[in-house]
Structure formats: C-alpha cells, structure tokens
Specification:
The structure is a homodimer.
Chain A (H helix, E strand, L loop, with lengths): L15 H20 L3 E2 L5 E3 H4 L4 H6 L3 E2 L10 H12 L10 E3 L4 H11 L7 E10 L11 E10 L5 H16 L4 E7 H10 L6 H8 L2 H15 L4 H11 L5 H13 L9 H15 L4 E2 L10 E10 L6 E8 L13 E6 L1 H10 L13 E3 L4 H16 L4 E3 L6 H10 L4 E4 L2 H6 L1 E6 L5 E5 H11 L5
Parallel strand pairs in A: 1-5, 7-8, 12-13, 12-14
Antiparallel strand pairs in A: 2-4, 3-4, 5-6, 6-11, 7-9, 9-10, 10-11, 14-15, 15-16
Helix pairs in contact in A: 1-6, 7-12, 8-9, 11-12
C-alpha cells in the first residue's frame, strides 16, 4: 500500500518561498493591468476538445492533454469505447473516448469566451488573465508541462492607443520589478512589404523564420538559411540591407522609408508605409520603445505592430511579447473582432529576478514576530499579545508547545521571522517581554502595553 | 470549420465582476491565514494516478478525471495501448493508457508533498492552499466539476493551540466578510465513547451517519434510521439522551460528563472524558465556539476535535469544516505525522454574500475615472493626465477613439467607472477638465494641475 510518492514529469510543487516570490511578480503585473482599466477573466482548466483541436497546428494538437471520459467500463459503453479507442489510435479524436482537454494557452479560451458572450460584452473589452496552461512537451530545463501564462488583450478596437498603452504597461511593470528591459517594436506590414520586395507574400514566412534567428546565429548563417529557403542573391541582399538599418528610431524609420519608396514593387499595397506610419504614431506617445526591424515573432496571426521585451542585463532572451491581430473569434463563428495583446513570461521573469537578486528582502517573511512558549501561564499571556498583534494586522505566532530555546529560535530562523518575543516566569511577573531582533541580536524589554505599538511602528507595509 | 463554442458540463467562466468578488473572499481568507503564520503551498493540477487512487473510497476513485497518455497512436505503442485499454475497461488502471490525473482535493497532494519533503520542512508546518480541484460528479445546482478548495492545516504538532487558532481564523475571516456565523465544535472521541456505550466501536459509523442528518430530517427519522442500522431500543434511547443535551457549553459538557461516568462501558478507554477535556481546554481560550454534540463530519480520518461553520442568517448549510487527524502521510510511507486542518467552502460563501448583499459597493469598480476622447489634440492632453493618475496608483482610462458622448458615457456606466473627465476644445484652451460624478451627476471644472490631487484625495484605499 505504501508507495514512495513522486510528481508527474515536468510539473512542480511551489513551496512557501516560491509562491510568495511568484505572487510578488503576479501582483505587480495585476496591479498595473488594473491601473490601465483591464479586467480579470478566468476560464476553466478543461475545455471541450473540439474547442482546442486545430488551433495550434499539427504539432500543437499532439501536445494537448486529453482527458479520458469517465464510465468507459460501464456495460452499455464498452463497445462504443472500443471503436472510439481505435479511432484515437488512428489519430482521430472520438468523443466516446475523450471529449475534454486541458487548456493549452489562454488565447483560444479567451476567443471562445468572447465568441460566447460578445452580445453582453462592453467593447472594447480589455481583459487580463493569469492562469496555468498544460502542454505535453518533452520536459527540459526551463520548460514545464504546467506553467502560468499572463496575458492582457484589448478586443474590439483598432485604435493605436491600445498599442501605446500596452507598451506602457510593459515599461511600468518592469520598472516596478526593477528589471532593466528594452521593449522592441516592429510591424508585420513592414515585414510583409519586405517580402513583397523579395518576390511576393509567399516568402514572408521564410523570411521571418530566418531573421528571427539573427540574434542567435548571426548574419552569415541567416544569409545561408535564406538561400536554402529559395531566395536568390538579389533578394538576400535586399534583406541584408534591411537588417543593417541602424541608428535612432527616427533614423531607422527614415532609412526604411527610402528603402520602400525606392522599390516600386511595394507600391501596389503600400503596406510598408502604413506600418511605418503606425510606428511613428505609437512612438510619438512612447519615446522609450526601440524600433527593432529584426523582430518578427513566430505567430502567424499577428497583422500589425508586434512587441518583444528583453531583459538587458541577462541572456535570458524574450521575457514578454505580443502584437495586433485581425480576427480573434472568426474560428468560432464571430468574425470581425480585431485585437491586440501582450504576454508576460512569468517563469523567465522569475529566473531573471532570482539571478539578479531583485526580490525585496522581506518577500519570504511569514510572521513578524514569534512569541516563545515557556509554559502554560507564560504562553497564555503570550497568546493574548499575539491575538492583539493579529487584530492590528501584524502577522505573529506563538510557538505551539513549551520547548527548549534552541528549538524555538531555530523555528523563527527557518521561517524568516525577524523578531522573537520572550516571556518567561520573571517577565510574566513584571508583565514585560524581551523583544529580540534576530537579525542583529539586539534586545530590549517592553511592557505588555507597548508591544503592539512597537510592532505597528516597525512594520513596513506589506500587501 | 466554424463551430458554435461551448463549455464542458459543470465548468464555469468567471467574468470580471465574479473574479473580483471571488478575489475579495480569497484575499480576505489569505490575509488571515498569513496573520496566523500560515504559509502558501501550490501543487500541480496533475498528479500521478497512483498518488490519487485508493484514497477517496471506491466512489471517489470513479470520480477522478484521468488524463490520456500522449503518443498512444505511435507505432511502437499501439499494441501496449490496446492491452492497457482493455485493462481500463475492466476497471484496472494501466499506466500505458493513463498515468496522470487531475487533483481531486488538496489534502492528498498536501500529504504527498509532506511525505516527499518532510526532511526539509520546519515542523510544525503550517500551510494554506487555495487551488481548484476536479471531480467527475454529476453536475447540479451548486455542484461543479471544477471548483476551488481553500484549506489551512498544521502538521507535526499535537498541541491544542492549533485547534484554538484555527477556530479563531474562522471567526476572524467571517467577521471580516461580515457573515454572521456559528462555529460549532465537537470531538471524535466523544462520538467514539457514545458508540462504546451503544455496544462497541463498530457502531461508530452508523451512529455518525445517522446523527449527521439530524438538522435535515429531525429526531424521528434519525431514530428510525438507527433502528434500521441495527441498534436496539436501549441503545437508541442512549443516543436520544445524548442528542437532547442542551444549554450553555459548560452545561452541555457537565451533562455529558455525567452520561459518560454513569456508563461503566466507557471506562476502559476513557475516550469520552479525554474528548471533554480537550474541548474544555479549547473553550478556555475561545469562548465563542458552540459545543454541538450532533456535529459528526463525514470523513472517517478525523480523530480529535471537529469543526463546522454555519451561516446563521441563511439556510446554506455548512460553509466550512475541519478537524484533527492522526496520520496524514502514512499511506505514502511516512507514518506518525499528525495534523489538524480547516477548509472554507468558497462557492457557498460567495452565494451567502451575494444573497445578503455583503460585497463592498466598489468591489467591481474597474477604473476610477474615464477620460473622454474628443479628438486628436484633446485626447493627447487627456492621455498625459491619465498617465499621471496611473503613476499615482489611480486606475484610469482614456476612451480608445473619438466617439459620441452617449457611447462614452455608456462605456463608463457599464464598467462601473464612477467619474467622467471631459476635455473638449474649449477646455483644452483653458487647460481644464469637466469632472462629472456619474453617480449623482454633479459636475465641476478643474485645472489640469489639480486633477491628480483631486482623485488621490477621493480615492478610498483599494488593494
């Protein structure tokens, strides 16, 4: 009966310190979302399999965790279940075996929610959502099968004000977290125009895939990949010219404008100039963005401005990204709802903050003070004081039973409790407590009546 | 391709207002847990099926949501998968078909965590956990397949201080939520002693199941059920005597003591008197508990004090419960870790608060003020002010595009935004804004420089 327990591969327990640090990050982000008028949404972990299938590409579909129907073994279900199982073995989903699955991201559930509720929603609908998602990826360092996503989207508005505000949310959040970042911006129409110059829209995917790797593999290898992908030397040299554009934001956009106006093949659609105009408008209100023409973002559904956040002091790569899309809910029968959204990479943000020691010193503090338990009468008096502190919103503890000093000190130390309050029999007689600051071992004796005030005063505000 | 989307049976989306109200409840509970030195734990949604199976009884096992292994259709897995599937049809679990499942409660994952980490944990370990669980129950009013549990437990301590503090947590939380409650307390050893008087420990389950229903079905039907369950008239009359004990806590415990000391069959174990002594000790520190001798709590693993919370102004039934248990982790190979815990019924608490209109009026407020968008130059000025407000932690919005007054008023109204700030061309010239309180339609004109101070002053603190 007794088995040595373990966790499924790729999943994690979060102990107290980790939960507190994660909460610090998520509360900071949530607070900024709220400052910008975004509203919270939560969707169930389980979605109908039909809602998810076909939305993430063939590879994505395979990584969806499917839930087995209950009651398969019941008499009247057995034959149906057998047929269903053979279908599943053949790569077809069959609702007689599995009709539910775990959420793979937050975007499709959000789209499903908007499609189901768009008549009641006040548009533009600004929602944020912070929930776990599940993917049957092969686990490896930094990649988990259960992890949090943290998204904010505005749907039902084409105004560039949304892009301006989302970029500002990034800057505000990372400023509050004290993580130095660069928020890069580019535009899908600029990339599309580049593809047009290079022989047509069908080259867009090849080009974006290749230039997305510039950071990692360098220009030589990007050039080789472009040739491999069937672009000719003339086209590659246009792309090189594009990638070599540098200078300030204004300089970059000016050079880019010349590149596009010099190429008559861009004229029919004028896409490139539209993209440049959008970026100029956004930059007018937000001068701290960095135009990054090599930024491509993998997802094909982006159609306008795209964002990516990099922590400048680490090599962590992207810790956030997003962009504008045209049609969130078309796949659910509600066309014509455009949107723009951003996403925070919570696990990577955590790693950056851990590496750079950016969490506040008291983030893992549980109680502010531990009252020692030195006997029945003593602990009775201590308990009254502990209850007084709690009534004044000061987290406090009484050690659960009489025990040696050592043991009680160790408990305080291991829980990160900064003060010990000691009431022995002599202190009980004089109605005082020894208050020991465990960080510097200083000590003072206070009358019972002054203890609450002492801790109210020394407590820094913690949310 | 386009399908009308829906949700799996028994699951729910939580829109903005509901998330905010739930957060109000959960934050209140969390804050009190923290005041008492409890620390947060989060475990993954997925556990190994082997961790969960056999822990919830035969009926419980059937209600566990099992996750289908990925890659079943791959060549080298097919024959194994077929065998595994036949095993599952025959009621046996087979890791070649499913080896993971969704968490069914928070207790077993907590036990698994403690068993895996007990060498590193500081005992007593006071943890709280607020996460969803999943059960394949038949959905019905008030019963969902995905719902939150909210638990606090102390493990590694037999001290009654823990019972005293947990009872106090209940009182503090419901006091903060403004829900009038009665926190009832009883003791498993008292029930066990009653069973002994009635012919032996094997009667305990029958007696507890029957008297647990007293509230709902009345004494006549309880008596009939006891007879049905094989108790004789003498035994039933002892139970009736037990159930009729009333008066103050002291009176109840005094009468109960006589009942037990008058029954020599209780003497060998003295269980009843032990239970009474525990209750007296707890009541000495917490006079607001109500001794409720009819309280039984269904779960068989309780061994000491048991608690139940009822909202006194509604017929909602229990909105919380808990108790002491002897052996949390024995099933995972780590014996001898006792504990005591309580649980909050979040969905029912929500319903009670909704029914009695107990949520704060501003709980669903998103932004504090909506700045109207009345053109390019006007909105530019408004945006500067909005950003200033946000920098001062006042949630504010600028309407996303120029639009008719009506539309912008309606947006504010539907999002519960209490103020509108209107900057038209004449206001832009004088660098003022009309500030309209949408709740009473009063209006005033303020210079740009005074707007932030105005909202900082009128803003009540919101976390």
């Amino acid at each position: 009966m007794s088995t040595k327990p373990s966790l499924p591969q790729g999943t994690r327990d979060f102990g107290p310190e980790t939960v507190r640090k994660r909460k610090y990050i998520l509360d900071t982000i949530r607070q900024v979302f709220e400052l910008y008028g975004f509203q919270p949404l939560e969707t169930p972990a389980m979605e109908l399999l039909a809602t998810l299938m076909g939305k993430y590409g063939e590879e994505g579909d395979k990584l969806i965790f499917k839930i087995l129907n209950n009651g398969l073994g019941e008499q009247n279900n057995i034959s149906k279940a057998r047929v269903a199982f053979e279908n599943v073995l053949n790569g077809k989903n069959d609702p007689n075996l599995t009709e539910r699955a775990l959420r793979y991201d937050l975007t499709i559930p959000f789209a499903r929610y908007v499609a189901m509720n768009h008549h009641q929603l006040t548009l533009p609908f600004k929602r944020y959502q912070i929930q776990p998602v599940w993917r049957a990826d092969r686990p490896q360092k930094g990649r988990y099968r259960e992890f949090y996503q943290c998204d904010a989207d505005v749907v039902g508005s084409r105004a560039l004000l949304n892009e301006i505000e989302l970029a500002s949310i990034y800057q505000t959040v990372f400023n509050k977290l004290a993580i130095p970042v660069e928020v890069g911006i580019n535009h899908r129409k600029i990339l599309a125009a580049l593809a047009e110059i290079c022989g047509g829209a069908d080259k867009l995917t090849d080009i974006t895939i290749a230039i997305d790797k510039l950071d990692k593999i360098g220009i030589e290898k990007v050039r080789a990949e472009l040739i491999d992908r069937g672009l000719n030397n003339d086209q590659v040299s246009v792309i090189e010219k594009y990638l070599s554009i540098n200078g300030s934001n204004v300089e970059k956009l000016t050079t880019l404008t010349s590149l596009f106006t010099a190429s008559p093949s861009n004229f029919p659609s004028n896409l490139g100039l539209q993209g440049i105009a959008d970026l100029k408008y956004i930059l007018e209100s937000n001068q701290n963005l960095i135009v990054d023409l090599t930024l491509a973002r993998g997802l094909n559904y982006y159609t306008g401005a795209i964002f990516e956040v990099k922590a400048t002091d680490t090599k962590m790569g992207s810790i956030g990204g997003g962009g504008r899309y045209d049609d969130l809910t078309g796949t659910f029968g509600v066309p014509g709802i455009p949107g723009v959204g951003i996403s925070f990479g919570v696990d990577r943000i955590y790693d950056v903050m851990e590496e750079a020691n950016l969490f506040p010193a008291d983030v893992h503090m549980s109680a502010k003070v531990l009252f020692f338990n030195l006997g029945e009468a003593e602990s009775h008096a201590a308990f009254q004081l502990v209850q007084q502190l709690r009534a004044n919103n000061i987290p406090a503890e009484l050690y659960h039973e009489p025990a040696k000093f050592d043991k009680q000190f160790k408990y305080a130390e291991r829980k990160g409790i900064p003060f010990a309050a000691i009431i022995g029999s002599s202190e009980l007689n004089t109605r005082t407590a020894k208050i020991k600051d465990l960080r510097d071992s200083t000590q003072q004796e206070l009358p019972f009546e002054q203890i609450t005030a002492y801790f109210v005063d020394t407590t820094t505000n913690r949310s």
